[in-house]
């Protein structure tokens, strides 16, 4: 085994989850409802009418789940904090029981030698704030800053790694353009305001972090390399627009304080530039960037505003069960591109994984999920290749620790290293989990065999 296959010392080997997708007990101990709690009750919004009411029951089984992390040998765990557990109304009165839940989790992780990596916003806005316009209300940046500051004050001494937002383009696009995520609106005008407020909220949280905590703070974006479906001009243009809108809409302002050139032409008349003061806030220096990577997209011209572009579905045998193309080279490419565009900043793969319809455990209790193990192996090699190309990659987090509530797909899509039987809440480590355990134990070498 050549040492080149290994990852650097101190590389973080993680798994990721998010609050609404795993916790269950959404209203326990004084928590307020969030927009997913509401949205999942809307008829037809979620496959099979699923909700996050039970999810993985992690709110009660968190100690067992930390034991599974130890079984895997994780050195880091990325989770998100449910804003409405901490501030049931989104602002105002603090709910100590909500803070305590995360404090206990963090303490147990640290005792277990696992680095906690906390995300402040993984899509679960308190419903009380949505009643005031949610992300369309300019005040949201201040509400988010107050919530963020509270978490830094309570946990900043113990959590070394913080993310402000998870995948902001999904918040604005899926939540406010396509209406397939909470709050389920369909308005480009709203989405344009939401994008601006998300970026201002991010910057406001970074400012609060510098004043209260010592660790590192960053943002998590999802990146998908785009290829035109043909060399016809309309497809090439559609692919360029999709790259601008999906891959650059948030990351460029975070580094430059400016929207990417050409975004205004896509978003239309409600688009406006940042003022100098807003620019400075949006571009408050960050310490790292998290990249969620799942797939490449082949893009063609399409009818729907604002992008007038859509995706060509990949061949089924080259895709996961969600129809996402399996394209490991794309991971190397996006990591190299971020480094080339924005300089050599520490990067993490904050999510990477695959949905496959796993068989239930066999008589020996084995969950055979060879396609997921192969997906992870190939993407780990792609991550290793990025290191060889000069990327300052500091860690890799599998999505996900557990099978969980996959947003509008409900429980129909399984991403976990650990299988969850949603009727009994029983957990079983899948073969992909065993594979990842070997990868961690060999510092990456097992992904080479
Ligand atoms: C990402 C989300 C995460 C999960 C995966 C499959 O877009 O951040 O919550 O649903 O996709």
Could you give the topology of this structure?
Layout: E1 12-16, H1 19-22, H2 35-39, H3 58-72, E2 76-80, H4 83-86, H5 96-111, E3 115-121, H6 127-130, H7 140-155, E4 161-166, H8 168-176, H9 188-212, E5 216-222, E6 226-228, H10 233-248, H11 251-256, H12 263-267, H13 276-282, E7 288-292, E8 297-301, E9 309-311, H14 329-342, E10 347-351, H15 370-388, E11 393-399, E12 418-421, E13 426-429, H16 431-441
Helix pairs in contact: 3-5, 7-9, 8-9, 9-13, 14-15, 15-16
Commentary on this structure:
39% of the residues lie in helices and 15% in strands. The chain is α/β, with parallel strands linked by helices and 449 residues long. The chain has a single domain, classed as TIM Barrel. The chain has an eight-stranded parallel β-barrel with strand order 1-2-3-4-5-7-10-11. Strands 6-8-9 form a three-stranded mixed β-sheet, covered by helices on one side. A two-stranded antiparallel sheet has the order 12-13. A hairpin with a 7-residue loop joins strand 8 (297-301) and strand 9 (309-311). The N and C termini lie close together (8 Å). The site of beta-D-fucopyranose has 12 residues, from loops.
What is the CATH class?
A: Alpha Beta
Mean pLDDT: 97
Rounded to an integer, what's the Rg over CA atoms? 21 Å
**Structural class from helices and strands?**
alpha/beta
CATH-defined architecture: Alpha-Beta Barrel
Order of helices and strands: EHHHEHHEHHEHHEEHHHHEEEHEHEEEH
Helix count, per DSSP?
Answer: 16
Helix content: 25-40%
The general outline is globular
Query: What's the arrangement of strands in the largest beta sheet?
Result: 1-2-3-4-5-7-10-11
User: What is the assigned CATH homologous superfamily?
Assistant: Glycosidases
Q: What is the straight-line distance between the termini?
A: 8 Å
Question: What is the count of distinct domains?
Answer: 1
Query: How much strand content do the residues show?
Result: 5-15%
> What does the largest sheet look like?
8 strands, parallel, barrel
Unique bound compounds: beta-D-fucopyranose
* Tally of DSSP β-strands: 13
Unreliable spans: none
CATH fold node name: TIM Barrel
């Amino acid at each position: 085994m050549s040492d080149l296959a290994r990852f650097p010392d101190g590389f973080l080997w993680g798994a990721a989850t998010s609050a609404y997708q795993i916790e269950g007990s959404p209203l326990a101990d004084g928590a307020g409802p969030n927009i997913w709690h509401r949205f999942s009750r809307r008829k037809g919004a979620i496959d099979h009418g699923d909700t996050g009411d039970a999810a993985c029951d992690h709110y009660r089984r968190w100690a067992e789940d930390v034991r599974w992390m130890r079984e895997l040998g994780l050195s880091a765990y990325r989770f998100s904090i449910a804003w409405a557990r901490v501030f049931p109304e989104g602002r105002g009165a603090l709910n100590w029981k909500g803070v305590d839940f995360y404090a206990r989790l963090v303490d147990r992780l640290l005792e277990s030698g696992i680095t906690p990596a906390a995300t402040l916003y993984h899509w679960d806005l308190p419903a009380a704030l949505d009643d005031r316009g949610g992300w369309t209300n300019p005040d949201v940046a201040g509400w988010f800053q107050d919530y963020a500051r509270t978490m830094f004050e309570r946990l900043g001494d113990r959590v070394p790694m913080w993310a402000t937002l998870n995948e902001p383009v999904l918040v604005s696009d899926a939540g406010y353009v396509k209406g397939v995520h909470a709050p389920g609106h369909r308005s480009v005008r709203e989405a344009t305001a939401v994008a601006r407020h998300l970026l201002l909220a991010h910057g406001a949280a970074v400012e609060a972090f510098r004043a209260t905590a010592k660790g590192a703070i960053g943002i998590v974006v999802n990146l998908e390399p785009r290829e035109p479906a043909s060399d016809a001009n309309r497809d090439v243009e559609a692919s360029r627009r999709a790259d601008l809108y999906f891959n650059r809409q948030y990351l460029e302002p975070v580094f430059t304080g400016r929207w990417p050139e050409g975004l205004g032409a896509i978003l239309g008349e409600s688009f406006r530039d940042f003022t100098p003061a807003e620019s400075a806030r949006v571009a408050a220096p960050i310490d790292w960037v998290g990249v969620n990577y799942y797939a490449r997209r082949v893009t063609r011209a399409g009818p729907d505003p604002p992008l007038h572009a859509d995706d060509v579905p990949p061949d089924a045998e080259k895709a996961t069960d969600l129809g996402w193309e399996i394209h490991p080279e794309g991971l190397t490419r996006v990591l190299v591109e971020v480094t080339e565009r924005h300089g050599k900043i520490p990067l993490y793969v904050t999510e990477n994984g695959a949905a496959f319809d796993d068989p239930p455990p066999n008589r020996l209790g084995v969950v055979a999920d060879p396609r997921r193990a192969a997906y992870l192996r190939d993407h780990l090699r792609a991550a290793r290749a990025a290191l060889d190309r000069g990327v300052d990659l500091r860690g890799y987090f599998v999505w996900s620790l557990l099978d969980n509530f996959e947003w509008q797909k409900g429980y129909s899509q399984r991403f976990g290293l650990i299988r969850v039987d949603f009727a009994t809440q029983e957990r079983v480590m899948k073969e992909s989990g065993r594979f990842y355990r070997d990868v961690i134990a060999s510092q990456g070498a097992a992904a080479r065999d």
